Amino acid sequence: MAGPPRRDPVSHRYTDSFQLFDFRFRVVSESATARRLLYRLYGAYATSGADLHPSAFTLHIERLATPGARRWRIHDGDARIGGRVTLGLALQELEYAVCVRMIAHRPDLMALHGATVLAAGGACFISGRSGAGKTTLALALAARRYRVGGDDIALIDPNTGAASPVPRCFHLDESSWRLLRDVGLPIPAQALRHKFLTPADLCVTDIAPVTVRHILLVARGSEPDPRLVSLTQAEAELGLLPEADWPGGSAVRALPALGRLVSGAAAYRLTSGRLDATAGAVAALLGPP
Amino acid sequence: MNESPRPRRDAGVRAETLPDGSAMLYDSRSGMAYALTASAAQVWASCDGTRTLDAIARQLMDIYDAPAGIVQNDIAALLADLQARGLVEWDGGVAA
Lengths: 289, 96
Description:
The structure holds two protein chains of two kinds.
Chain A: E1 14-20, E2 23-29, H1 32-42, E3 46-47, E4 57-63, E5 72-75, E6 80-84, H2 87-105, E7 110-113, E8 115-119, E9 122-127, H3 134-142, E10 147-150, E11 153-156, E12 163-165, H4 174-182, H5 189-194, E13 212-222, E14 227-231, H6 233-240, E15 244-245, H7 251-263, E16 266-272, H8 275-286
Chain B: E1 6-9, E2 13-17, E3 23-27, E4 32-36, H1 38-46, H2 53-64, H3 68-84, E5 88-91
Antiparallel strand pairs in B: 1-5, 2-3, 3-4
Helix pairs in contact in B: 2-3
């Protein structure tokens, strides 16, 4: 839900402020649609911005009217961040820029690539190399009423191993959108139109840090039937290590944090089969949503 | 005196044992990390430079109730692998 309108009567621009993991930023746009989509992503993190310093990180969304030019441009006042022909793609560049700066702002937390799916019995962290199908699997689980906190990055507290999924839009190619329609994921029309699907579109907002109870390392490739192979916690930690991203940190620093993350979890290597069967096998593992 | 060789963990290797008994090894010199199963982690923990391969095998035979020959062969293969990766050294000579 959008916050109170803060539209400048002269420039007709909206200015909205957010605080994400203590990283504060603002977004300026003259597009009500852009603002609406933005609130689907960051609405739970909106702040009044009254005490936000003028030099705080500020991103501008502009629609360009020049014929033949890119239609949407993202910039930070000085430098161009990105430009895309659709608003959804432009907003993906915006939220990527926010994500990168937010992670840099929190060197006390370790960024770990993967999807965080919430079940009644605890969270499941789904990791694997790019293209392994983490997002599609997470959203297929959403179709089974599991809550997906994020599909790309979680911030790990090195002291507790608790995971906090970072709100990002889901990055899906055309075949993934098709697959998700096939498994019955209800996608809001606005998200479908702009190809900008967020956790809030799946009724997930403002996730507190969660304890991970299951870890899935998704292998590349697929077989006719899904296969789950139990892993030791050390194998899980080793599998997660390449997905850890700690600015200025090394494996020496990442391993204890990963150790705490895997300590309370059962880990599996997943070779995917048909999407619906794979989601069913994982759901059987996770228990009720 | 002909001493039996005794494996010893390399001091530069950082080890972390997890609740399921498995362990992570990290060699900061090479930047390589390794995952050990629970039984391999027990062998690793036993490599303190005071126990021979036979003594480590006896210890694990008691725990796993496995035939002596199989346990000894498995431990020898594991130690050879760990040695090849620079994770253990042998005091009193290298095991045959």
